[in-house]
Amino acid sequence: MTTTGSPTAILHLRFHRAGFETYRELFTVLGDITPVVQALPPDGALLDLSGATRYFKQSPAQLADRLQTRLAARYGLVSTGGIGPNRMLATLAADAATPGTVRVLPGDPAERERFLRGRPVRALPGVGPALERSLVRYGIGTVGDLADLPPATVQRIAGTSTGRLLHERAHGTDRRTVRPAGPPATITSARRFERDVLDPAEVRRALLAAATDLGARLRVARQVARTVELQVTYADRSTTTRSRTLREPTAHTPALQEALYGLFAALGLQRARVRTVTARVGELTAAVGTAEQLTFDRAVENARTLEPVLDSAGRRFGLGTVRPATLLARRMFTRS
């Protein structure tokens, strides 16, 4: 297992049930410990604690405990983490940690190697489902199995560049660094029901309202979004968050509506009382120069054609002045 000359301590934290806005706010707390913080949306972060350990004269484990205590006190958040000498090992430690705790990998390289060799090969960054199936066909199920192979054999299975990278990572080397980056710019739209609802049709109406709102705001800002996220808050205040990457960046309401409907349907909720739905679009880029895929769906094309008219009315009379007819009925939710 490769080690570096100066000790490095990377902390990978995951936040349980963190809402969109809370996730953005908590980076203020993380930044109080170290300026080297990289967001891993929608619920994680990487922190390089190397400088912080010298500044605060505390161990990485003590700093992680301080962070968890502050996050719990300020936001009521439970977090799980892992600490290792590089990004990959910190993530693997977090994967193996008990919820609400931080697992610190041992300083002894031999002990870290034993930990790494026992992990499933799919745990290595860069190993997706297709590559995992290929490795398993050759009897490679653990990182140890992979580490025991000659580099040429790994390259023959996975390709030259990928094989070289996998060989390094199977021996504990990860050349990636923590790059300071806060949460990406997003636009959020939330709908809170006047009473907890069971009817999926009511939820879909709220999602349509959110999609209409998000689409109009994106077009006003002349931006398009690549990702859509949905957070459902239940009567007991617990939440579920799901996200989807769109086939192409868009600001069109029908595409956002379809994505939100799909995310909600995938939850498979039965008899769940829903209190709030929150939709967010991310990975925003300028709409100028963005390619747009044509479709033969007349309803979608008609909606796209109508959008400039609705946007013009919105600029003159205010966003939301003109909206789908199904939203003109008695409202069961409020915008929040």
From TrEMBL:
Transmembrane segments: none annotated. The keyword DNA damage applies. The keyword DNA damage applies. Poorly processive, error-prone DNA polymerase involved in untargeted mutagenesis. Copies undamaged DNA at stalled replication forks, which arise in vivo from mismatched or misaligned primer ends. These misaligned primers can be extended by PolIV. Exhibits no 3'-5' exonuclease (proofreading) activity. May be involved in translesional synthesis, in conjunction with the beta clamp from PolIII. Gene3D superfamilies: 3.30.70.270, 5' to 3' exonuclease, C-terminal subdomain, DNA polymerase, Y-family, little finger domain. It comes from Kitasatospora nipponensis. This is UmuC domain-containing protein. It comes from the Bacteria. Keywords: DNA damage. Belongs to the DNA polymerase type-Y family. PROSITE patterns: UMUC. Residues 24-128 form the UmuC domain.
